[in-house]
Amino acid sequence: MPQSRNPGGARMITAEDAALLVKPGDVLDYGITFSQPDAFDRALAQRVGELRDITIRNCLSMRPRAVLEADPEGRVFTIFNWHFSGYDRRQHDAGRTHYIPCNLGEIPDYYRRFIDRVDIAVIKATPPDADGFYNLGPTSLWHCAVMERARIIVLEITPSLPRVHGSDVRVHATEVDYLIEGDATPTPELPSTTPTDVDRAVARLIAQEVEDGACLQIGIGGMPNAVCSLLLEANVRNLGIHSEMLNDGLVDLYRAGLVTGARKVTDPGRIAYSFALGTKKLYDTITDNAEFICHPVDFTNMPDVIARNPRAIAINNTTQIDLQGQASSESDGHRHISGTGGQLQFVRGAYASKGGKSFICLASTYEKRGERRSRIVLELTAGNVVTTPRSDMMYVVTEYGIANLKGRSVAERAKAIIGLAHPDYREGLAREARAKGLVPPHYL
């Protein structure tokens, strides 16, 4: 946590006065998801005609950013983002937001070692408790590292923010400079998507590999959530949870009594996460609930920490995979769509866990401009970023099957992955694999 910088306690000012603290050339940090400020953001946007060369770092925006709406050509505000939401992706497409390549679990270290400037950090927090501590809510991630680096710290006090238990989620009034009054609007929600038949087919294959006592990490999206639904149906017991993101699917397992954490080594008996994102049901469940513990991301996402828990299970999505097992999960050619997040770190951590398993899942096809295309390809789309290298890939899963690539040659990998493709594309993929020498002439 930041050191005591204000023995008399933080001073309450208006959002407009807080925005006046910003000077030309400043670097600001808005934090992550729904911890990003709203009242301050609107006040800063009103100064668009007075400022120049303002840099803002943020991540996974859950609401439109007023500074971007007020500066559509990006003449004043430049946004650098650690992981895109749908809104951030649209801003990137318009040239107003720019991605920062990262492994999410390394970001606190980036601030402490490599990022030399945070002039002002503005992050949401709950009203203070009886001891004068403000709670940063269920988004620990790298907020403490940001505040350690920041020249000025502003907390936007938001009553609707869930108050949670965690290792670094409380900030005392003496550790910050200013307080501003935030909005009374509810915490933004991320609705659960209804699993498709393909999602459930993939989930069924993965659920068969999850044993009693497994420790789960679930990524964002319909397929990972469908796995939680299948585990509910299968009544898998004594589960643990050690995850970057806490979502509705994991909370459903907890509410059904299937999560005990009894076999965990880290935080035994508790559900560990770094940020929560879902519906009101999730937020209500974790509020003041000591069975959930929110950690900085450099704890939850470190492969050596993940590996301490036996039977660690990592379940994540990808958008394209080639015949050698490279997964591209964050871009569509040179168009960035999301981020590396914690995928690679959990792939490595789960593999290193005793009895652990890593699953990268995808639908075999997708529609683009009215045309069906295969997500399994001879080679990745030009410009696509490799999120999980072939050397790290363990299980690959589509609706047509599951294959473990560990210990397999290039030829064996190509054959196994072609078997996971939609039947309409298998012959063409086999022909391409032979033509490029990935497999012997008569292997397929």
UniProtKB/TrEMBL annotation:
Residues 278-433 form the Acetyl-CoA hydrolase/transferase C-terminal domain. It comes from the Bacteria. Keywords: Hydrolase, Transferase. Residues 12-188 form the Acetyl-CoA hydrolase/transferase N-terminal domain. SUPFAM superfamilies: NagB/RpiA/CoA transferase-like (SSF100950). GO terms for biological process: acetate metabolic process. GO terms for molecular function: acetate CoA-transferase activity; hydrolase activity. InterPro entries: AcetylCoA_hyd_C, AcetylCoA_hyd_C_sf, ActCoA_hydro, ActCoA_hydro_N, NagB/RpiA_transferase-like. The keyword Hydrolase applies. Belongs to the acetyl-CoA hydrolase/transferase family. This is Acyl-CoA hydrolase. It comes from Falsiroseomonas stagni DSM 19981.
